[in-house]
Specification:
Layout: H1 23-51, H2 56-85, H3 96-106, H4 111-134
Helix pairs in contact: 1-2, 2-4
């Protein structure tokens, strides 16, 4: 009996299959899966730190760890926004004739949108530096 729709890259739940053909997707999914249980622990820690002051320093560094783990999510979201907004011109692997038609029809270039994820990432890193330096311990 033949299987229909068989994906030779492996099962969807196995994120390590992504490493072979899409490394940024692997990093995105790995950090996402780490953040799922970590966010519950982080939320409980935040609630307890409100009522128990000695936890504030631990909460600060825990926030820094969560911030670092959340960085790929922010980058990929900005990249997806740029990709969607330019109809694939930014970060897309499109045929040259199709790119020409897109630019002609929508009169849109991908210049700003190609830099948008890096601008968002720079702002995210500046926010991280501010969080680490100026959060009172």
């Amino acid at each position: 009996m033949e299987k229909r729709g068989c994906d030779f890259r492996g099962k969807q739940r196995n994120i390590f299959r992504l490493w072979g053909f899409h490394k940024s997707a692997f990093i995105h999914m790995l950090f996402y899966r780490i953040l799922i249980p970590l966010s519950i622990i982080y939320g409980v820690t935040l609630i307890f730190s409100v009522f128990y002051a000695p936890l504030n320093l631990f909460t600060k560094w825990f926030t820094a760890v969560v911030w670092i783990l959340f960085t790929p999510q922010v980058y990929e979201t900005a990249k997806a926004f740029a990709l969607i907004n330019t109809r694939g011109l930014a970060f897309g692997r499109l045929n040259e004739s199709y790119v020409y038609l897109l630019k002609k029809r929508y009169n849109k270039s991908a210049g700003f949108y190609a830099t948008l994820p890096y601008i968002v990432l720079a702002l995210w890193i500046v926010g991280f530096v501010f969080e680490v330096i100026w959060w009172p311990a």
